[in-house]
Structure formats: C-alpha cells, structure tokens
Amino acid sequence: MKMQAFSKTYDSVRVLDFPGMELLPGKIYAIIGANGSGKSTYGKILAGVLPADQRGRPLGGMSVGYLPQKPYGFRMSVKQNILLNGGEEAEAVSLMEALQIRHLEKKRADRLSGGETARMALARLMMGRYDVVILDEPTAAMDMETTSAAEDLILKYTQKTGCALIWVTHSLQQARRVADEALYFHKGSLLESGSASELLYHPTQPETKQFLEFYGN
After folding, report:
1. Could you give phi then psi for residue 31, rounded to 5 degrees?
2. Domain 2-63+130-215's class?
3. Phi, psi of 52 (to 5 degrees)
4. Hey, is 59 helix, strand or coil?
5. CA-CA distances (angstroms) from residue 191 to 101, 131, 142, 203, 205?
6. DSSP category for residue 55
7. Residues in CB range of 197: below 8 A, 6 or more apart
8. Is the pLDDT of residue 158 over 60?
9. CATH 3.40.50.300-classified regions of the chain
10. Can you name the residues that pair with 166 across neighbouring β-strands?
11. Which residues, other chains included, contact 40 with Cβ-Cβ below 8 Å and sequence gap of 6+?
C-alpha cells in the first residue's frame, strides 16, 4: 500500500513535509516526536480531516479508520455508539468486556469521563475493518491497567484484520512495546525511520538520539 508524499502549509509557513512511504499489511508504525513536530497534523491529513497542500488524499483508494486524540460520544448509549460502526452485538459485548466498560453499556456516551470515552471510541473503531487505521494517542486518557488491555486488543486487531496501523504516541515505552516500525518527526519533517528495534534503541541521527535520551526514561 503506497502512501503518497504530501505537505501542509499554514499562512505561507510549511509545517509538515512528508516524503511518502510503503505501508505493509499487519504492521504497526509508531509516530514519535516532540510536541509541535507535526505528528497529529500527519494523522489528520491521512484521515482526511485536514486537507494536504496537494489535491487528493495521500491514502486515496484505501479505507481508513481514525481515532482522534479527543474522541467523542454521541447522545445515545455506549452500546449504541459502538454498534454505529456495524458488526454483531456479540462482538460489541466482547470489546466492552476487554476494555472494562461492559458496566457502562446503557450509560449515555456523551456523559462519560475522558478515559471511558477513549475506551468506548476505540471499541467503536474496532467494529469496522479498514486497510489503514490511524490512532492518535489512543491511551493517553487511560490508566496503566486499561492501557495494557487496550494495547493488547489493538495488537490482536491488527493481526486479525491485516490492516496497516499508524500509532501516534508521546510514550517511547509504548512505542517500544507495540511497534514494528518507528518514524521520528522533527520540526515538521520525517527525520528518521526504520525498524522499531533499531530506531528506538540505536538511532543514527543526532536529533533522534537527543530526543530519545531526553524522553526515554
């Protein structure tokens, strides 16, 4: 699956410049970098939420699932929210149990806490099947226990569906746990990419090394 090159400019200032890449089915790509490096903008453009400078979409022709950094709940029950994305009720129940929100299935989704909303939205996304899935800080509002459950579920989903999964994360520890490949963004550019085991432990670029040393512990 080929992701086309793209850029994003605001007020004549280019804030993101991405050269494109090949996405492999069943692989997890961790997107890392400091705040303001372009990670979330990258995810929004791939999802079609923001337009790129170029016409068309970098993932044109592919089905894309997207979980934003601040997901939302519609004014209906948690179970109804999850079933909005299709699928069988038994699958929805299984996801709720795995994410520890079964007890909330009848609660209005727009009245959940931030962590509960994140889990509900993740379950809703996983009811669908996509070529590419983009997760922007999917566990940022979760505690350690639910983060572990969510990570396990996401790994299983990727293996089951064969999607290419792009995971934007501020946590290097998380990237090391989940990723097959890693991409380091620096000031709006892709500075370094490669296997997660190499980039996250043995980077070649000085900026990547400095970032990992500063945020790695």
Report:
1. -105, 115
2. alpha beta
3. -80, 170
4. coil
5. 39, 26, 30, 11, 8
6. S
7. none
8. yes
9. 2-63+130-215
10. 29, 134
11. 69, 136, 168
Helix axes 89-98, 144-161, angle to 10 degrees: 140
d(CA 119, CA 90): 17
Please tell me whether residue 190 adopts helix, strand or coil conformation. strand
Give the span between the Cα atoms of 187 and 185, in whole angstroms: 7
pTM of the predicted structure, to 2 decimals = 0.94
- The mean pLDDT value of the chain amounts to 95
Beta bridge partners of 18: 6
CA–centroid distance for 205 within its chain: 24
Output the six-digit token pair for 15.
Answer: 């804030």
Query: What is the tens place of the pLDDT at every residue in 89-108?
Result: 999 999 999 999 999 999 99
What gap in Å lies between CA 82 and CA 96, rounded to an integer?
9
